[in-house]
Design a protein that fits this description.
The protein is an alpha+beta fold. About 35% of the residues lie in helices and about 25% in strands. The protein has helices at about 20-35, 55-60, 60-65, 80-90, 115-120, 160-180, 200-210, 240-245, 260-270, 280-285, and strands at about 10, 15-20, 45, 50-55, 70-75, 100-105, 130-135, 150-160, 190, 215-220, 225-235, 245, 250, 255-260. The strands form 4 sheets. A 7-stranded mixed beta sheet has the order 3-7-8-14-11-10-9. Strands 4-6-5 form a 3-stranded antiparallel beta sheet. The mean pLDDT is about 95. Bound molecules: adenosine-5'-triphosphate and zinc ion. Zinc ion binds near residues 110, 155, 233 and 256. Adenosine-5'-triphosphate (ATP) binds near residues 112, 151, 214 and 229.
Length: about 300
């Protein structure tokens, strides 16, 4: 492991990779660095599974806005007799899944959604803070470097009133920018929008940009290819309305700061080479490697 190559291995499925131990070591270090950035705020840490109730994602508005990205979970709902007719099709490459039916779970597209759902019915007398990580899935149509379908997202999430959420988001945008700069990456901060689907997409994207709801930190992942490695977002009262939690009697407001762990790692590998143990000591320290790790 000492000097191992950390680069992900393709699996044959676009946007799905296997990760060598040296890559996972780097992700562990990034988690340490993010936890250190967050150390002066009382975050409640939650491990989040890679699936979420379909009803929760529907209620959050995700399905209506991003139907093209949602990975649904289907399973067989027919009889054994019906399966006897379908089973041969598995071998011949036929339509064995004709009787699959959508279930009550879908694949989780972002780590923060379960947090908002967990606040249902609460009156927030002071801001709440959560630190979460999950394996996320999005049915991306392209697969350039860093555009994965299965990826890990770490998020810091808060809920409270509007002033708190705006100030918190702005503080985190600065903090993450400084951290990435300290890792010798060159983050560019940009107002951004989400990939809304269909006829109303342009309208929603324009409104999202006009209200500066989403900022992205964009970094080069390959020669000439820049991707967002982190985002800092406010959602106004969208989730407070959707899930019924309040602050001072009004629908609660929320903000999140999301870290694309694979993308940050890929940006570092691109900038400093495929062997993390050979990186400059200052970079190793900034990414969260323990002192003396490389001796
Ligand atoms: P919101 O709360 O506004 O829905 P979010 O912050 O939870 O957004 P995004 O901004 O869409 O989620 O994604 C967060 C981060 O996850 C991105 O900045 C990126 O680093 C990473 N990410 C998103 N999509 C992919 C992908 N297809 N492959 C790899 N990483 C991704
Ligand atoms: Zn989020």
């Amino acid at each position: 492991l000492t000097d191992a190559d950390a680069r992900p291995l393709p699996t044959g499925a676009p946007g799905v990779f296997c990760y060598p131990e040296a890559f996972e070591q780097l992700l562990a270090e990034l988690r340490t660095a993010i936890a250190a950035l967050a150390a002066d705020e009382p975050f409640q840490r939650l491990a989040v599974p890679p699936v979420i109730a379909r009803s929760t994602l529907e209620r959050a508005g995700y399905v209506a806005s991003f139907p093209q990205l949602v990975g649904t979970v289907h399973s067989y709902a027919g009889t054994p007799r019906e399966w006897a007719a379908l089973a041969p099709l598995v071998v011949t490459g036929g339509d064995w899944h004709a009787h699959q039916r959508i279930g009550d779970l879908v694949l989780l597209p972002a780590a923060c959604y379960p947090v908002y759902a967990s606040l249902a019915g609460r009156e927030l007398t002071s801001p709440v803070r959560f630190a979460v990580e999950a394996s996320c899935f999005r049915q991306e149509v392209t697969s350039e470097t860093g555009r994965l379908r299965s990826f890990r997202m770490a998020e810091l999430v808060t809920a409270g009133d509007e002033a708190h959420c705006l100030a918190w988001r702005d503080r985190w945008l600065d903090r993450v920018g400084d951290w990435l700069t300290g890792c010798s990456l060159k983050p560019v901060v940009e107002v951004a929008d989400d990939p809304f689907f269909g006829a109303t997409a342009k309208l929603y994207q324009a409104a999202q940009r006009a209200q500066q709801l989403k900022y992205e930190l964009r970094v080069e992942l390959a020669d000439g290819l820049v991707q967002a490695v982190a985002s800092a977002n406010v959602h106004r009262d969208h989730f407070g309305e959707a899930f019924g939690f309040t602050s001072a009697g009004a629908p609660g407001q929320t903000a999140c700061t999301a870290f694309g762990l694979e993308r940050i790692a890929l940006a570092l590998l691109h900038a400093h080479g495929p062997h993390p143990r050979r990186w400059p000591a200052a970079v190793r320290a900034a990414v969260g490697a323990p002192a003396g790790a490389d001796r």
